[in-house]
Amino acid sequence: MKTIAVIDDDQPIGDMLEELLRQEGYGVLRAYSGTEALYLLSRHRPDLILLDLMLPGLSGEQVLPRIQDIPVIVVSAKVEVEDKVRLLLDGAADYVTKPFEPRELLARIAAQLRVHAAQPRSGVLTVGGLRLDTAAHALTAQGAPVRLTKTEYAILKLLMANAGQAIAKSVILDRISADTPDCTESSLKIHVSNLRRKIREACARDCIEAVWGIGFRLAWE
Fold first, then answer.
1. Which of 47, 124, 200, 208 is the S-S candidate for 2 at Cβ 3.0 to 4.6 Å?
2. Residue 119: how many CA atoms within 13 Å on its side-chain side?
3. Domain boundaries, the chain
4. pLDDT, one tens digit for every residue, the chain (221 residues)
5. How far is the C-alpha of 89 from the C-alpha of 72, rounded, in Å?
């Protein structure tokens, strides 16, 4: 069961959120001030946090930088674009303005939980016989080392982190753009082809599939 921390001093809103979340099968933790939130987080590790900004004691803006490696959705009555941009840059995963549509909030929660679950928690990704050391940027296929270019590494890391899922070409290009700005839609197919060939030569397996009309998927069956 995924657990969500609701940090909000508004009792009726907090109660509504708790009921909504429990109906969806989530566990719920509650805190009513910034100071109480930090104490709560020192004793528990929720899977996601819903954070109000206007809290007694420490404000939500003061609490946010102290939260590490837990997705935070800010739920606030502040509607200014500058507030949203600043908080997203400060580490919030998403921003929902009060009053909100419950179904939209639940969808945003589910999306953030999926994204966070896909992110590796250690320096090694393993899918079938593939082992990618993200610290050393080193790949082995069935124990055999495979030399990768920077672009091939970035593509494979994304595919392995989302193994079994078809990833759109546009998403791949967007996610690897910071590390490989030279990769374009026309060259992506070439990079993937070279990556498939290297893995196939190392372990006689073709585990990267082209999904027609979408992009690519890594599947080790």
1. 47
2. 12
3. 3-118, 124-218
4. 889 999 999 999 999 999 999 999 999 999 999 999 988 887 788 889 999 999 998 899 888 888 877 889 999 887 688 877 888 877 788 899 888 899 999 999 998 888 777 665 557 888 888 999 887 889 999 889 999 999 999 999 989 887 877 888 888 888 887 777 778 888 899 999 999 999 999 998 899 999 888 889 998 76
5. 12
Q: What does the block give as tokens for 39?
A: 């104490």
The β-bridge partners of 48 are 4
Would the CA dihedral through 7, 107, 47, 26 be positive or negative?
A: positive
HEC string of 40-75 equals HHHHCCCCEEEECCCCCCCCHHHHHHHCCCCCEEEE
Parallel, antiparallel or unpaired: strands 215-218 and 167-168: antiparallel
What DSSP state is assigned to residue 214?
Answer: T
Tokens, residue 34: 């910034």
pTM of the model: 0.55
Judged by phi (left if over 0) then psi (alpha if -120 to 50, else beta), residue 122 lies in beta
The CATH class, in words, for 124-218 is mainly alpha
Are 60 and 38 in contact, with CB atoms under 8 Å apart? no
45, 71, 86, 219 from 95: Cα distances, Å? 21, 11, 11, 34
